[in-house]
Structure formats: C-alpha cells, structure tokens
Amino acid sequence: GGRGGGRAARFTGAGPASSLTEHTGYLRLRGCPFTATKRDVLGFFRGHPVVEDSIEFVRRADGKMTGEVYVRLPSAEDAKRAMALDRSLMGRRYVELFISGVEEYSKVTSAGR
C-alpha cells in the first residue's frame, strides 16, 4: 500500500520554510491561543531557556493576534532541544514549532513598531 512515506516527505519538499533547516536559536510557534501571554509562552517552554525579552506575538493590521509567536533561545542547541515540544498543548491548542531565523524574526519585530 501507499502508507509508509507520508511523514518523511513533508520535511524534504518545498514550502516557505524549506530553506530554514539549520537551527539558529530562533523558533516560530503556530497555533497559539489568541489569548496567550508571555507567561503562557514561558510555561509552554518550561525547562527550556527562552529569552523572555525575545517573545514576539504576530498581530494582524487591526491588532488582533494571529496565533503565531516568535522566540529566541540562547543557542542553536537549545532551540533544537526545544523542538521536542512540537505539537504540545498550550491551553487547549496544539502548537506547532518551526525553525526560524534572525531575518524572519526581525521582520516581525520591526513590523509592529
């Protein structure tokens, strides 16, 4: 049958983040509750050294949350370990984690200021 290969294929193909395969210390979270706070994000990453001042919530033009959050960890190794939390719960929502980078992060931080 055609069942075996579905999961691995997702990580090899195209997509906006396909070029970001090297850990840099930056992570993007998708699917966070719209009510999430910095404290919620820090709680989600409990045991992982997220830089508290780095937590950035992505907002739409009208100021509403998109459910995306960017964070920075002190090192690429820390970010790699934190990826173990991919698809963990924050509140009642499953949060997906993606490798990000300084360019993507700075677009978000400069857009809101």
List the helices and strands and how they pair.
Layout: H1 6-12, E1 26-30, H2 38-44, E2 56-59, E3 65-72, H3 76-82, E4 88-90, E5 93-100, H4 102-111
Antiparallel strand pairs: 1-3, 1-5, 2-3, 4-5
Characteristics:
Alpha-Beta Plaits, 4 helices, globular, 5 strands, Nucleotide-bd_a/b_plait_sf, alpha+beta
Structure described in brief:
Keywords: Repeat, RNA-binding. The chain has four helices and five strands, in the order αβαββαββα. It is an alpha+beta fold.
Query: By helix and strand content, what is the structural category?
Result: alpha+beta
Count of DSSP-assigned helices: 4
Radius of gyration: 15 Å
Sequence stretches where pLDDT stays below 50 over 5 or more residues: 4-19
- The overall number of domains is 1
Helix content: 25-40%
- Encode the helix/strand succession as letters: HEHEEHEEH
- For the record, the CATH architecture stands as 2-Layer Sandwich
Provide a descriptive summary of the structure in words:
The chain is α+β, with helices and mostly antiparallel strands and 113 residues long. It has a single domain, classed as Alpha-Beta Plaits, CATH 3.30.70. The chain contains 4 helices and 5 strands. A hairpin with a 5-residue loop joins strand 2 and strand 3. It is globular.
